[in-house]
Amino acid sequence: MNILIVIPELSYRGGERIFYTLAKGLGQEGHKVKILAARVKADAFKFEPPISLLTLPGILQKLMGNNLIFYIILFPVLFLMVFINSGDVDVIDSESGFALWASVLVGKLRHKKVVWTIFAFESDILPKGLANRLFRYIYGRVDRFIARKADGYKCIAPRISRSLKKAYGIDDVDVIIPAIDPDRFNNAKPFEVIRKFGLKGKLVVLLPATLHLKKNQRLAIDSLGKILEVFPNVVLVLLGSGPDREDLVSYAEARGLGGSVIFAGVAYGDGIKNYYAASDVVLVCSKVENEGLSMTALEALANGVMPIVSVGAGVAEILSKKNIALVVNPDVSEFSQAIINYLRTPLKYENMIVRGKRWVSEELTLKNFTNKTLDVYESLFLHI
């Protein structure tokens, strides 16, 4: 089977990584996979053969670097790219938004099957204002119409399937939790991180996420103040980049916590494994109502590290049901106390981590992820 995966842009973040992992699994099963992206950001992770990346040539890529131009011409660019590269394709697997619009339109023109993959469902991402509300209304109506023309639907968390049913009236959505690729975490070198940031003798609390309001790093910073009263050697490591970096730096410094918060930037390639290996706890503080799935919590378990997760995070429902993490209300008092309790008596929670690591290693395998996805693809051709 030939599959074309369509994403608006490639960076270092979760959705692209999930698609890349899927492409790796499909390739191992003998299928041909191409990933198409209109823009490749400077912090994008590198592709390895045999997975091929289709993108624009250099001069056009530079043009797409301008955000205003990118959003204005994204749909026609994606449409042309998908049309040109879909001649020998059996299935087009697309992310949301303009990528989906282009994929569905090309699918109808070329008689190709289209699957919509939903990583997150944030129904209101624009600032308030009459013009934005009007745009959101028109965009929402068009998006709902086009989305319902796809041939198949899959998402990465149960809460997303419920949101799709409510907002789009789409019932038949396959929930497939992505694989945790163990190859990414082999041969970790925690001492590289410890030496780089002077963490010897420190308790390391790691929060790997885009530096953005919806990831709620302020909860971690506020909690840090209370944790330091009990464990003066605690350091909070914020791993990632994003638009809120300067605001978070100022926020930490204004609370006298600047010396205990490390802004580590992006871990390129598979460098994140060194951070997991150097950490005592991994946090997920998200507060977005319809966030997809916080893969970092699952990656932490794969590395034998305790995740402490906000009840509002996308992964919280799964972790709570299986009792394989500490899921806490995003309240400073409760969140900080959960971290303190764990750091004080980590052995008390050892069985929870062992159980979580076993579940990840047995259930979230590349083979399971690939086979469940192939089931969705193959089901599209059953009633031709």
From TrEMBL:
It holds the Pfam family Glycos_transf_1. It comes from the Bacteria. One of its GO terms (molecular function) is glycosyltransferase activity. Keywords: Membrane, Transmembrane, Transmembrane helix. Residues 196-359 form the Glycosyl transferase family domain. The chain crosses the membrane at residues 68-86. SUPFAM superfamilies: UDP-Glycosyltransferase/glycogen phosphorylase. Residues 13-184 form the Glycosyltransferase subfamily 4-like N-terminal domain. InterPro entries: Glyco_trans_1 (IPR001296), Glyco_trans_4-like_N (IPR028098). This is Glycosyl transferase family 1 domain-containing protein.
